Amino acid sequence: MKRNILILFLFLIVSGVQAQDDAIVKFFSKYMDDDRFSRVYISPKMMQMAGGFLKSNEVKSDQEAADLGELITKIRGIRILTAEKINGKPLYTEAMSTLTKNKYEELMDIQDKSSSVKFMVREEGGRVRELLMITGSTENFTLLSMLGNFTYQDLNILADKTNIPGMDKYKGGK
C-alpha cells in the first residue's frame, strides 16, 4: 500500500512538471506552422557538442573558453519563437496566460507604452531549471525558454559571455 501511494505521489509530481512544459510546448506548437514566426530549437545534444568543443584539447590553452564550454553543457535546450512586424502585445498576453505563474519567479518586468519584457525562472532544489523571457511590443514578439541546471552566477556569465538570443536583454537589466 505504501509503495502504491509513493508511486502515485511521484507520478503526480512528474505530471505537474510535464504539464508546465507542455503548456510552453503547446504555445510553440500552436504557431509552429505560422509563416509570420521564426522558430529555433537547440537540442540538449547540440549543447553538449558545443560545450565539448569549447572544452576540447584544441582550445585548452584558453581557460575562459573551457569554462564557458563547461557552462554551456549545463544547458539542456533552447526554444525560441519570434515574429517581427506583428503586434506582439496580444501574443505576450496569451503566452503569459498559458503559464502556471506559481511555478515561476519573476526576475525582471519592464513595461512601457509600446512594449513588455518579462524574465522569469523556474527553480527546483535551489537551482534554476528554466529561464523564460517573453517580450511583446507593437512591432514584435519573442518567447525564449532555456532549460538547464544553473546558478544565478551561471546566468550572469551566459549573459555576459555569449550571444544567446535574449541574453542581451537579461544583461541590460542587471
TrEMBL record:
In the record, which residues are listed under signal peptide? 1-19
Database matches in Pfam families = DUF4252
Record keywords:
Signal
Protein name from the UniProt record: DUF4252 domain-containing protein
Which organism's genome codes for this protein?
Belliella aquatica
Please spell out the taxonomic lineage of the organism that makes this protein: Bacteria, Pseudomonadati, Bacteroidota, Cytophagia, Cytophagales
